[in-house]
Every structure is written in structure tokens, then in C-alpha cells.
Task: structure prediction
Amino acid sequence: MNLKKIFSVLMLAMCISFMSPVFAGPGPAIRTNETPKEVLTYQIKTRLMEIKQMDKSNLTRQEKKELRKEVRELKKKAVTNGIYLSVGAIIIIILLLILIL
Result:
């Protein structure tokens, strides 16, 4: 097959696959101005500030240990926001770049 034919078929397949979610029914409407991610981030920040402002001098050793664990878990939740690419997506991107170039 000609390279142009392969490329045109591939582009047609991509266009069809991207347009199919458009034809799906409307999803549930979110009526708040804030996204759940922003709300969660705000809650994590407020909890970290509460822990920072606590008087830790009268806490027992075990309570301090539990607070440290909680802070570590909250920081992990706050950092995990990011973009993830699967192996299949990376392979498809590389193949498209090879075909285009």
C-alpha cells in the first residue's frame, strides 16, 4: 500500500474514535464551580495547617507518630496529581511520529 493511503486510513480511524464520545448521552451535570480535585486539595491544605498549628508538647509519643503518618499520607495525596501515559499510548505516539516523519 501507498504511504499516503495508510496515513489517510489511520487519520480517518482516529477522527472516528475521537468523535464517538461526542455522540454519547450527556453525563451528570456538575453544578459547583470547583472541581473535586480543587476541593480535595483545599481540604488537604487546611488539615496540614491545623496539624502545623497544633500544640504538640502535650501529645504522647504514639500520638505524634500517628500525626507524622497522617502528614506523610496527606502529602502523598497532594503530590499524586499528574499526567500518566500508558505503554500503549506511548507506542502509538512513537508509531505516529515514525509514520509522519
Observations:
- Residues 12 and 18 are 10 Å apart (CA to CA).
- The chain has a mean pLDDT of 78.
